[in-house]
Write a structure and sequence with these properties.
Elements (H helix, E strand, L loop, with lengths): L4 E8 L5 H10 L6 E3 L14 E7 L3 H10 L10 E4 H11 L3 E3 L2 E5 L11 E5 L11 H11 L6 E5 L5 H9 L4 E5 L3 H13 L6 E4 L10 E7 L2 H4 L3 H6 L1 E13 L3 H9 L4 E8 L2 E7 L1
Parallel strand pairs: 6-7, 8-9, 8-11, 9-10, 11-12
Antiparallel strand pairs: 1-3, 1-4, 2-3, 5-6, 12-14, 13-14
Helix pairs in contact: 4-5
């Protein structure tokens, strides 16, 4: 049983702004956001108002709530409470089932799955990091990765659970690369998932800032919000080798043009735009 304690914070929002608030919650520090409405496994109490839930370490809850207030989020519901890490994981287990995305099948660590001959299985435990394959931004990245034909060296910036780096390592058996994230929890979870998938010998996981990473790479992925992607455009674009591929995601469609322009200005050319549920991924090349 884990000793880690988390505060569960719930926000009741309007349906038309739910995606916007999800992006905001991730931007201000949520490792992940659970959305509940009438279509999810656990339903929101009000049929007309989705509920967004986040889990924040107990000692960080007050600061997180202040950031939420400054960002304009509605006041949290009164149902906020403490949970331990094992209970947090149990919530995921109720609705995180194997799911097919592109050439990959994402299988939670507590499930058994018999893979078909053409399927690449990613054995994942979300832990405390973003990236289970359930969010459209992650799915779009995996679809884009599925279309790649070659890769010898890769980099995943803002790796979260490590799912994208692991997908690249399992798709290209001779490839190696790095996965970096400023969140130390994400670094730990990515390393654990890389070990679980038997690719840790080909992925270096660390909290190294992208500006200090030694490139170039054949493939660079970055599933982060625009407020991070744009300021890091110089550093991220510079890591893409000549003829290499850059996959950017975590972008609400209405913000995609600004992100795309920032990377075009740094020598990148757009080869595909992938959309799902209001989110966009950009596939670019140098």
């Amino acid at each position: 049983m884990s000793d880690a304690r988390y505060t569960e914070i719930a926000f009741v929002v309007t349906p038309e702004r739910a995606e916007e608030w999800i992006a905001t919650l991730v931007e201000i520090g949520a490792s992940g956001v659970e959305e509940r409405d009438q279509t999810t496994f656990q339903k929101a109490a009000d049929a007309a108002a989705p509920m967004l839930l986040v889990w924040v370490p107990v000692g960080e809850a007050r600061a997180f709530l202040e950031r939420a207030r400054e960002a304009g989020l509605p006041p949290p519901a009164d149902a906020s409470r403490e949970r331990d890490e094992d209970e947090w994981r149990d919530v995921w287990k109720q609705y995180f089932a194997p799911r097919k995305v592109g050439r990959f099948v994402i299988v939670p660590s507590w499930e058994k799955y018999a893979a078909k001959a053409d399927e690449i299985v990613l054995d994942m435990d979300p832990g405390r990091a973003f990236g289970t394959g359930g969010h459209p931004s992650t799915r779009l990245c995996l679809v884009a990765i599925s279309e790649l034909e070659t890769c010898e060296r890769f980099a995943d910036v803002g790796c979260g659970s490590g799912v994208l780096a692991i997908a690249l390592a399992k798709l290209f058996h001779e490839a190696s690369g790095i996965a970096v994230d400023v969140d130390t929890d994400a670094v730990d979870v990515s390393r654990e998932n890389a070990m679980r998938n038997a690719v840790i010998d080909r992925i270096s996981v660390s909290a190294t800032p992208v500006g200090e990473v030694h490139g170039p790479f054949d493939v660079v992925t970055a599933n982060i919000l625009p407020d991070v992607l744009v300021p890091l455009a110089d550093d991220i674009a510079a890591r893409v080798g000549d003829g290499g591929t850059l996959i950017l995601s975590g972008i609400l469609r209405e913000l995609a043009d600004g992100v795309e322009a920032a990377y075009v200005a740094r020598g990148m050319r757009t080869t595909a735009r992938l959309d799902e549920e209001g989110w966009r991924a950009l596939v670019m090349t140098r």
